[in-house]
Design goal:
Blueprint lengths: L2 E4 L15 H19 L6 E7 L7 E5 L8 E5 L5 E5 L13
Parallel strand pairs: 1-5
Antiparallel strand pairs: 2-3, 3-4, 4-5
Bound molecules: zinc ion.
The site of zinc ion has 8 residues, from loops.
Length: 101
Amino acid sequence: MALIANLRHYLGDDLSLVKIPAPAATLREFMGCLVEAVTLRDPDDENYVTSLKCRHGCDGDIIVFFDPNDPSPIKWSCFFCKDEGQLTGWEGTVWDKSSGQ
Ligand SMILES: [Zn+2]
C-alpha cells in the first residue's frame, strides 16, 4: 500500500522539527532524506536512485521520481519490495535544497 504523506503534518507551523512520537520522527527523517536527495540530484536524472535504504530493511535502494515542471508530489519506491509513496508539502522545509532555498 502506498504511503501518501504531507511532510508539513510532521512539522511545526513554522516548519520546525517539533517533537513527535518516535515512529513518526523516524518516518519524518526518511522523508526528509528523500527530499534532500531529490532536490540535490542531477536535474537530468528523471528516476534518481538514492543512497537511502528501504524503511522495511530490505536490500532495496529507494528510487525517487521528480518532475521539475510539476514538482509536487515527490514519488518514490523501493526497487526491491516495491514499497512506495508520494510526498507533498516538502517545499521550503529544511531538506529542500532546490534553488532559491
Ligand atoms: Zn524495500
